[in-house]
Amino acid sequence: MDIRVGFGYDVHRLVPERELILGGVKIDFDMGLLGHSDADVLLHAICDAILGAAALGDIGRHFPDTDERYRGISSVRLLQNVVKKTRALGFIINNVDATIVAQKPRLSPFIPAMKDNISSCIRIDQNRVNIKATTTEGLGFAGQGLGIASYSICSLIKRD
After folding, report:
1. Disulfide-capable partner of 154 in 56, 63, 96, 114 (CB 3.0 to 4.6 Å)?
2. Can you name the residues that pair with 9 across neighbouring β-strands?
3. Distance CA 65, CA 84 (A)
4. What is the pLDDT along the chain (160 residues), one digit of tens a residue?
5. Using CA atoms, how far apart are residues 124 and 53, in angstroms rounded to an integer?
6. What is the CATH number for 115?
7. Which structural domain, as residue segments, surrounds residue 85?
8. Torsion-angle region of residue 23: left (phi > 0), alpha (psi -120 to 50) or beta?
9. In total, how many domains does the chain have?
């Protein structure tokens, strides 16, 4: 059995007049994340973790911000595409663990919906998806409300 682990990280700047989308969930907030796609840092970090575990590069290699096909695209679609690529190589996603780093807004009420979206996209049970949210106690860009970051790890299994 081939077992792999991947790590992902993403960060985007908070700006006015953009929707805040995290884990495929629209969150009512006065700012959103700036990016070529919907800038969902959580799903981008998960994509990178999956791609890393499969040794397929990173999200920018597969969905470059210079390609107009991805302007404004839902990161749910990007995640679905990443899952398709890894399954084509014979990998099954075993689990995902992720942390969102944001001072505001309070994210805990949205985590169940995020887990539901992610488990559906990657086709695993919700008990194999863990999402956490934390602050930086006012320190750094996230603590100052300038942006939101996310970290993720995942494990893949390929049966021989």
Report:
1. 96
2. 151
3. 20
4. 899 999 999 999 999 999 999 999 999 999 999 999 999 999 999 999 999 999 999 999 999 889 898 898 999 999 999 999 999 999 999 999 999 999 999 999 999 999 999 999 999 999 999 999 999 999 999 999 999 999 999 999 997 7
5. 17
6. 3.30.1330.50
7. 2-158
8. left
9. 1
